Structure formats: C-alpha cells, structure tokens
Amino acid sequence: MNAIRTVFIKEVLENLRDRRVIFSALVFGVLLAPVIFALTTTLASKRMVRDQDMPLELPVVGVMNAPNLIQFLKENGVEVTVVRYTEREAMDAVRSGQRDFVLIIPDTYGKKLEAGGSAPLDFILDTANSRTASSASRAQRLLYAYGQQLATLRLLVRGVSPEVLQPIDVRTQDIATPAGRSLLILGMMTYFCFMSMLMGGFYLAIDTTAGERERGSLEPLLSLPVPRASLILGKILATAAYMSVSLLLTLIAFSVVLLFVPLESLGMSANFGPRIVLSIFAVMVTFVPVGAGLMTVVASFTRSSREAQTWLSFVMMIPMAPILVAVINNTRPNAALMAVPSLSQHLLATSLMRGDPIAPLHVAISFATTLLLGGVLVWVATRLYRRDAILG
Amino acid sequence: MIAVEGLGKKFGTVQALHDVSFTAADGRITGLLGHNGAGKSTTLRILSTVIKTDTGRALVDGKDCSTESLEVRRSLGVLPHASGLYPHFTGRENIEYYARLHGLNGGQVAQATENLVKRLALGDVADRRAKGYSQGERLKVSLARALIHRPRTVILDEPTNGLDVNAVRMLRELIRELRASGCCVLFSSHVMQEVAALCDDIVIIAHGRVVVSGTPDQILAATGTTDLEEAFVRAADGSIA
Known about the structure:
The complex is a heterodimer.
Chain A (H helix, E strand, L loop, with lengths): L1 H15 L2 H35 L2 E6 L5 H9 L2 E6 L3 H9 L5 E4 L4 H6 L7 E4 L7 H25 L20 H4 L1 H33 L2 H5 L5 H30 L16 H11 L3 H14 L3 H11 L1 H13 L13 H12 L5 H25 L8
Parallel strand pairs in A: 1-2, 1-3
Antiparallel strand pairs in A: 3-4
Chain B lengths: L1 E10 L2 E11 L4 E5 L6 H8 L7 E6 L2 E2 L4 H6 L1 E4 L11 H11 L4 H14 L15 H13 L5 E5 L7 H16 L3 E6 L2 H5 L4 E6 L2 E6 L1 H8 L4 H10 L4
Parallel strand pairs in B: 3-8, 3-9, 6-7, 7-8
Antiparallel strand pairs in B: 1-2, 1-4, 4-5, 9-10
C-alpha cells in the first residue's frame, strides 16, 4: 500500500515538471476544446440569425411577364432584383456563386395562365450549396403559396370549395424543447470531454511504461523489494488522476464558455450549472479506469515511446467511435446501450444537459459495466508486468 | 553469498544460458567475465529477480530468486547495465524515491540520502535535475540509489562502460570499501584488465556456460598460461574445459 502511494506521488510530481504532459493535459481540454466549441456554435447561431432576419433577395428574369406574382412576392418581404439573363447565363451565374438562385418568368407565362393552364416558372438553384439552402426553400415556399392562392381563386370562380384540393390537413406540432434541439452540439461537447480526459493521461500512460523502459529506469525499479503489481497500480493511479483533473477542468471551462455562447439564439438551452457539471463529472469519471487501463496495457506492449504514441493515437479512437455513431443517429438511451462504456457516459451526460429524467437502472448498469471493464483492464496490465518480456 | 546452480534460460528460440553454476562469497569481489552475448547480463538479471530462470536455481543468502524474490530483493543492491534516472527529478529526489520504495521512513530517507551524497561527493550535483547529468554524475547517482538500503549483496552489470578514468577509480574504491564492510560484490565485464585489477575470484562465461572459475592463480593454472588476458581468450574460445 505504501509502495503504491510512493509510486503514485512520484509519477504525479515528476510529470508535473514535464511540459509536454502539462500541455496535453491542460491545453487541449481546458483551452482548445471549449474555444473550438464556442467558435463553431457562435458561427452557426450567427448564420441562423442572419438567415431569419435578412430580407430574401430574389433575382428575377422577365418581371413584366407576371406583375401579380411580383406584387405577391414584394408583399411577402422579398426584394425583387431585375436581371437580364438567358437561361444559360442564369445557370452560369448560379453555378459561379454570383447569384444564390434565379427565377425566370418565361414569355408564355401570362398566356398559359389566362388560358387556365399550368403556367411555367423556372427556378434555378444549386442544392449542393448548403449556404443558400434555407433562403432557396423560403423562395420556393412562397412560389407554391402563390400557386395555391391562384388555385383557390380558380375553384371559387367555378363554385367549388377549395377544400377539394386539401383532402388531408397535416397539422404539425413541434414538441422539441430548446435543450432537445441542441443534441448535436451537446454531443460534440461530450466528445470533447472524452478526448481531453484521454489526452490528460496520454503521455503519463506512455512515460510510466514504454518511456520508463526506454530510459532504462525500469530494470532497477523492478529489482526493488516491491511487488510489480504495486508499481503498475501506482502508475495507473497517477494516469487516472491526471485524466480526472483534465476532465474536471474541461467541464468547468465549458460551463464558463457557455455563458458567452448565444445558444438561445439557436433555439437551444443547455443546463450547465455547477450541480449538472458535478453530476456529469461523476458519470464520466467512471470511464477513467477504462481509459487509463487501456492506454497502459497498449503502451506496455510497445517497444518505444514513439511506437506507443502511434498506437495510443489509434486506441483513443475506440471509445470515441460509439459516441460519433450515437450523435449522428440521434440515439436515445436504453438499458442495453448502458452496457457499452463510453456510449453510456455520453448518453447519460447528454440527458443531464438536456434536463431529461434519468432512470436509476441506467445509471447502475453504466457504472457497473464500465467499472468492471476498467477493473479487467487494470488486472491485465498487472499481469503484463509479470512477464520477462516487459523489459523489452 | 551468491550460489548459482545449473541456470538455463531460453528467449524465444535462443538458448541464452545452458548451464551456469558458480558461487560468490561474502567479503570478496567476484568478477563475471565474458564476451558480449555470453550470458552475463541474463545471469545477473536472474539474480536480481527481474527475470525467472527456466532450469536450475539461483540463491542469495540461501533464498531462492524465483520463489522468494521479494526477500532476495530486500538484501540486494543492483546496478543494471542500463540504469536510467528520472530526468525531471533531481539526483537527490531520484535517490529518495528508491529509499522510500525500500520502505525507509521520512527521517531515514533524508539521512541515508545525505550520507550517500557525502560519500560519493555529489555536492550540488544532487540538487540539479538529472536531465543534464554527465556520464559520471549519472553513475554516482545510480550507485547511491542502488546502495541506499545498505545491501549485503551488490550486483553491478558492466558498471565501467563509457566512464572516464576518474569515475572508474572512484568506482573501484567504492567496490573495495563494500568488500571491506563484508559485502558480497558480483560485477560483470568484458574487459580482463578491469576484472584483474579488482577481483578476488573470477568466473569466465562463454556461450551460456561457465568455462572456468576460481582465483586468478587457479585460472592461470587451468588455462596453462601466465597471462590472464591470454587465459581469458583461451577460456572464452572454448579451447579448454
């Protein structure tokens, strides 16, 4: 027990003096991740605000062909720009990004309409351009609405109820809570938290195993009257301590950054008060033994620090994969998923941030499976240190 | 007192040790001599319990290195071939870390460390970080670290490699001092003069086998020469035994 404490204190102290360790433990998690997060969300919200508030600018060819339509558009807040393009020129203008989209009113429009037929309108847009997607669909919605209005008038003239054209009436009710809409962004946050947790222990896991062997300090260490299990446990504990501190600081940094990010303008809100931060920490910290054990086991197999770095960079992605899949698929928590370490922490943490109720059973399954896996990995690490080959 | 009986060790397909037997007595300096790859380091690693022997057994003061490794390590001071220090710790902190792992308590740690810092004339080197140490300074700190618990048995694996004359002299003096205090000192080398200058007993090892052992005179007699250098070459080439 004493030996474990001695090794733990030594690894914590010595690595505090290693600039590389401090850099990876603190800079990524505490500074970089929240800054990246703040920048992306701020940009997203700015664009969203801009798209909603800005008047829709619509370049139109052949304005004089449809004065009523132009009147309708203007009444609905569209700024009509008169342009003179052939169809080919209009396409080129959209393709080159000079125009977001172009509406062409052909000369035949008026005649067709008068004859009671279907009047053609050419709307040229680039669906591959996501920047213009929302204003393009706004323009399209207005055009359909105008068409709907004309149809209603035609039916009324013929003495038919316009309801004929509306056999079903879809009434959409959006029940998304503001916090619920921020799922993608909150998913990004747990991803960053996991990354910075793992980064916090990255160099320690390498330095205490492959690094110690490379420096030649492992052999004299192993000839001390201390069980090898105590040595490796002390080292893993030191790695775990760095990971936990890194995680906690990252969560605190996020809670500060969120004060300045205009989440509300994105129609979102996140619960990130001190109580939630601590709850999320309690949930995610159960993953620390898994991460520390995994990184130590992998680093123990490698021949040099450099090789260990290469391997660990890959291994760090393993716990990340389920989170990415869950974020993309908008996965909801269920009992079976709680048996998957890293995924279960992600789901519980996002639920906490969304303010959703949390099933005690889910928490119990998550804690049990994650701590069990952590225990197994730590045990594997102690077994590895019994082999002769650990000296390399 | 070290007693080694019929050690055999295989790494993968390579048989590093075939049959190594010898003894090293208390109050004497025993030199383990052999070419590179002869099995010196493997033998010393088995004695310091960092690897386990496949066959035979190694005893330190009657305790078995495989089954009573913790007890063996308590009485052992080891300076392995690669004896790295922690670069971000000072020399003193490096020594104190080992003192604590040997189970010394607070006051004893500081006292024992200070004694060795004085004995090895480390001076203010002890309070500099190990990162910038010279070869000689590194050796002194490694030695202090290995001797912090006043071991009865001291094992040194090629300690003079890459050292300048002053450091070698300091080391020899220290080894003689250990002998005078009754320690059993076992050290390995591939240089005959090194061993001849220092050792009471010599064990010559070649291709994982002990070819000849005894006092320098006994070795000369066994190899039929008057020159120890020549004796080593003959013994190591397997032209005797």
